[in-house]
Specification:
With 425 residues, this protein is an alpha/beta fold. The chain has helices at 26-39, 41-52, 63-72, 75-92, 132-145, 164-173, 183-192, 209-218, 243-254, 269-283, 289-299, 308-318, 331-334, 351-356, 392-408, 412-419, and strands at 3-6, 100-104, 108-116, 119-123, 149-153, 177-179, 202-204, 223-224, 232-237, 261-266, 301-304, 322-326, 342-345, 382-389. It has a 6-stranded parallel sheet with strand order 1-11-10-9-12-13, sandwiched between helices. Strand 12 (322-326), helix 13 (331-334) and strand 13 form a beta-alpha-beta unit. It is globular and about 90 Å long.
Length: 425
């Protein structure tokens, strides 16, 4: 049964389980990274056999395998994948920035140049469920940014096959290479390169604790997006809500993972009790009850606040990955939200809408990092360079200020590099 609290009875930091992502896996991951760096493809095949039960002769998905998977999926599903791509691309197209240039008198030119990251590795989970949606969410902003090479890594099944829905999505996304490897070993391959897998410049995409720890350890050798924790949702709801719908939204999150967290904050004690009862009713018939039940019973919570303003205050302190504002006038609360990864406004904008079709990205900051983090975007796939041009006359105008600044810092070589341009030795 889900736990019900009055607001203030439990510290807000305990409302979401901040799981120790790297507990007990650091040494194992270090060993995997070292072995892949030393042995390349041989290590990838070894770990794929050990962890996935697949004996691979070729690590790369062939064009024939992609075509076979694409044609084996229904035409209706392929249209859905294309529809998702179109919606996500439309949203993310507004994030594209051209850089800028500015001028001052005497020939000064300053600017910022936006350049795509060249090679990007995309991790696509395929454990208790397949996630072609994650593939599309990662590929779209990378493609719009102009990345020249996209490499997918994803675990195979015991027959050495990649999930057909993932391959169908990859074809629609026009990725460059798909590697039949998952886990920390896939992150290692992308970070260091092997005979079959090119070394990339950045690794993005969610994964389990081993993937997260591997990304943490290779950061600095390559860039990463974030270190993602278990998925989470917080729902702010007034008394005018259907408890069946609220329970369904909580279970949609809970079925992801036994560590996922679903929290309802409401100003109605009656609604809180009815949602708790409805959760039990729906859990009994949920196909993934074995995952959702421990998630709800161990991590799920219902919090009774004195008002909706207090409920929003609670949400801001928790900084959830997904935040649903299930009230009649949700836009009146939008300006009060300070910390949330993705905000779903109104009673007909469930979090599942954002997982697949709405357009905004579903790769989001977790475990409270929405206090300072942002959703995956086109910005994650570009780098920024700044440039400066000064004419001799413009440098002369500012040279005394530069030299004074440098000398105050004791950097006389800096000052000399300015002064020497104007001395007549």
């Amino acid at each position: 049964m889900i736990k019900i609290y009055k607001y203030g009875e439990v510290p807000n930091e305990t409302l979401f389980i901040r799981s120790p992502l790297f507990q007990d896996v650091g040494a194992v991951v270090t060993e995997i990274l070292n072995k892949v760096q030393e042995e390349g493809d041989a290590a990838l095949k070894y770990y794929t056999r050990k962890f996935d039960g697949a004996d691979l002769s070729d690590l790369i998905v062939s064009n024939e395998e992609i075509e076979e998977a694409f044609t084996s999926t229904s035409e209706e599903y392929r249209k859905v994948l294309q529809q998702a791509w179109d919606n996500i691309a439309e949203y993310h197209s507004h994030q594209i920035r051209p850089g800028f240039v500015m001028t001052r008198e005497n020939g000064v030119v300053l600017g910022q140049k936006i350049t795509p990251i060249e090679k990007v590795g995309l991790y696509v989970p395929n454990g208790t469920a397949a996630y072609p949606s994650s593939l599309i969410m990662n590929c779209v902003p990378a493609k719009l940014a102009g990345c020249s090479e996209l490499i997918i890594v994803t675990p195979p099944d015991r027959n050495g096959k990649v999930n057909s829905a993932i391959l169908a999505a990859a074809k629609i996304c026009n990725v460059d290479k798909i590697v039949k490897v998952g886990g920390a070993q896939a992150v290692a391959a992308l970070a260091f390169g092997t005979e079959s897998v090119p070394k990339v410049d950045k690794i993005v995409g969610p994964g389990n604790a081993y993937v997260a720890e591997a990304k943490k350890q290779v950061f600095g050798k390559v860039a990463i997006d974030t270190i993602a924790g278990p998925s989470e949702v917080l729902i702010v709801a007034d008394k005018n809500n259907d408890p069946r719908i609220l329970a369904a939204d909580m279970l949609a999150q809970a079925e992801h993972d036994v560590m996922a967290t679903s929290v309802l904050v409401t100003d109605s004690e009656e609604l809180a009790n009815r949602v708790a009862q409805e959760l039990e009713t729906q859990l009994a018939v949920l196909p993934r009850e074995n995952i959702a039940r421990p998630s709800i019973e161990n991590n799920g919570k219902i919090v009774i606040a004195s008002s909706l303003d207090e409920a929003v205050e609670c949400a801001n302190e928790i900084a959830p990955e997904h935040l649903e504002i299930s009230v009649d006038d949700p836009f009146s609360y939008l300006g009060k939200i300070k910390n949330a990864g993705s905000i779903f406004l109104g009673k007909d904008a469930p979090e599942a809408l954002g997982d697949y079709m709405a357009g905004p990205n579903h790769t989001l900051p977790t475990t409270g990092t929405a206090r300072f983090g942002s959703p995956l975007s086109v910005d994650d796939f570009v780098k920024k360079s700044q440039y400066t041009y000064f004419s001799h006359e413009a440098l002369e105008e500012i040279k005394d200020s530069i030299m004074l600044f440098a000398e105050e810092e004791g950097l006389h070589g800096h000052a000399n590099s300015i002064d020497i341009r104007f001395r007549e030795d």
